[in-house]
Write a structure and sequence with these properties.
Three copies of one chain form a homotrimer.
Chain A lengths: L5 E2 L2 H14 L2 E5 L5 H11 L2 E3 L4 H10 L2 E5 L5 H17 L3 E4 L7 H10 L6 E5 H8 L18 H11 L2 E5 L3 E4 L4 E4 L12 H13 L5 H20 L5 H14 L2 H4 L1
Parallel strand pairs in A: 1-9, 2-3, 2-4, 4-5, 5-6, 6-7
Antiparallel strand pairs in A: 7-8, 8-9
Helix pairs in contact in A: 1-9, 2-8, 2-10, 3-4, 6-7, 8-9, 9-10
Chain lengths: ~260, ~260, ~260
């Protein structure tokens, strides 16, 4: 029987972040063209190490070396499909976790078919908005582009079903983020509407999820910690800025300086 | 008979921006590798919604859904040609406007031939610097790279001719921007030389033009409003910064906060 | 016989930067997907002019027109290989200098084999970290990703050997940068550890090296001047910021405003 969502603890987030900064995980990012630089800078700011290696042969080599892999289908093309499959198979063989960000899955054919193929390949985690998680789970969606037309809570049943079906931790993000393993569910609060005016905050969160799933321990809690690190830093940054331009530098500084006190 | 350029009104710009923020147009961007993130952030700051969908099949699907399409040839390759043609044909079938940014057209073969092909496909607007507009119109150009070697006023006859030939609104931008439908011509002042030290300000303007041509009303005025929003925010931002690095966050904040008072 | 490293002079750096700002070199960048925008903005800030032209045919045309070419293999794919070879051959035919940044060369096959092929094609300069320079020189390396596991001084013998073998100026960068033509060696101090938390600072340095090798005069000194401009601006910027987010705008402003006084 499904439990009700429980608010995730700041103390556990602080402990996971502390662990991450010691482990300094190397995250192999196969992500979209728009957010490459921001994604890398977010990973560097939290203390992880990003690398974008995109040739199919090299991607297979590198996925076995890195600590985790991110697959984001935001600007998917046929050559990316080949590289992503090579990397996912290699990560699986090497026992390395990988994370799927199903950007705008639902209405667009190539990414939707490919993402439905990918979820058969044992992702460690899937991070999307409500319409993306609904679409992956086979439920209907109202999204037109990358912005979700659905509320994250309403997609929680779809998230639980997707988690049960794939074995992945599923994070459906929105005003409140819900993280589930199909049975348990953690709720993560924070963030700010201004973050939706900055490209790549969701995509970068998926990369941070990849960094955190490289850690040992309870994977459900590690994914929730990733969400909480980003929502906490986002909320703190938004209190200090006038708009989406000044958000980016302040957000990266805040991630870099984030400590247990702020998280609790 | 051609009329003399007339200064475009701040009140009309404010009205168009107000309209844009209500309409929240979804802009499909097929743009170059260098400016993807900045372009998306500029569109988000003004209240539009960007999406980069680049696979040929998906680009065709998405161009029919989006409110406008941007085609920027700055880092054109053969695969981009295929996706851009698919998107343009789909946009035309669906009755959605599309905008061409002919980056560095003139000396380089692939983009020049392709852009000459594209202008036969009824763009709603074309935005370029003087040497690019001259090159597209068949007149000679002195540009070597993406920076124009020509003055925007001297390219106005070329712009008028290109507008008459294609049916597009043509914006030739520089110290002063001129926007013409082949007969009428609006002049847009503002901006600052510092903006030429920040990559992507011209490319992002073309994306903003795409957002504004999605609005109903006089398309000539809508394109001029796009130019004025960017030149006004650029000028205001430059008054507050020490150099091109601090320009970007302040510019995005200024776009986000821009109101009728500042525009008039 | 090899001379000991000599600290490079601030006065020579200031003179080279002054020269660069008058010459305004056009730098053709074939670089990785992650750092395109930052690279362009760094070149614009120092007074050079960037252009990314990536189709193989256009890359060959443009390399003959530009003042220098950068080849960075950070996100190498087979289509990039073709464009890079076309551009390098064209630059060589036209007598234009080109610079190699062998990102993460060592463990990954495509880039390693390709970079070993490229160094036969008379690069003007090669800029890498210790593990990359060791790998190119045939000595063993400990790097796992783009971060070097080696100390720059320990790689100086490899750098000298690589310079002798290729005729290139080799810059091995780290806490201290060493620049050698195989006999002479200049040491460049400055920078800050925070710069390793910002993606693209090394890649952008290679683009700046390309801008400086377009200048006449002693190429060894010009490469050292490029390193010193970046390390000086980086050090000054780090004194003013709280973290890696605010670093980027302040760094670009500092490059833009950098003068002889600061460099000496």
């Amino acid at each position: 029987m499904n439990t009700q969502p429980v608010d995730f603890s700041g103390a556990l987030t602080a402990a996971a972040l502390h662990h991450l900064r010691s482990a300094h995980p190397l995250v192999h990012c196969l992500t979209n063209d728009v957010v490459q630089s921001f994604t890398a800078n977010v990973l560097l700011a939290i203390g992880a190490s990003p690398a974008m290696v995109v040739d199919p042969g090299e991607a297979a080599q590198f996925a076995a070396i890195a600590d985790a892999l991110l697959v984001n289908v935001g600007t998917l093309t046929q050559p990316h499909v080949e590289a992503m499959l090579a990397a996912v198979h290699s990560a699986n063989l090497a026992g390395k976790p990988w994370v799927l960000d199903p950007v705008a899955v639902g209405g667009l054919s190539l990414r939707t078919e490919f993402s439905l193929e990918l979820i058969q390949l044992t992702p460690a985690a899937i991070r999307g908005n409500a319409s993306e998680i609904r679409a992956l789970s086979g439920m209907s969606s109202t999204g037109r582009g990358v912005d979700s037309g659905d509320d994250s809570l309403s997609a929680l049943p779809a998230a639980r079903q997707l988690a049960q079906q794939t074995g992945a931790i599923v994070a459906v993000t929105g005003d409140i983020d819900y993280v589930t393993d199909g049975a348990r569910c953690l709720a993560v609060r924070g963030g700010d509407a201004l973050m939706t005016r900055v490209v790549g905050t969701g995509c970068a969160l998926s990369a941070v999820v990849a960094a955190f799933v490289a850690l040992p321990g309870d994977r459900l809690e590690n994914v929730a910690a990733a969400c909480r690190v980003m929502s906490c830093a986002g909320e703190l940054a938004c209190q200090q800025v006038r708009g989406p331009g000044s958000f980016t530098p302040v957000f990266l500084d805040t991630l870099y300086l984030l400590n247990g006190e702020a998280l609790q």
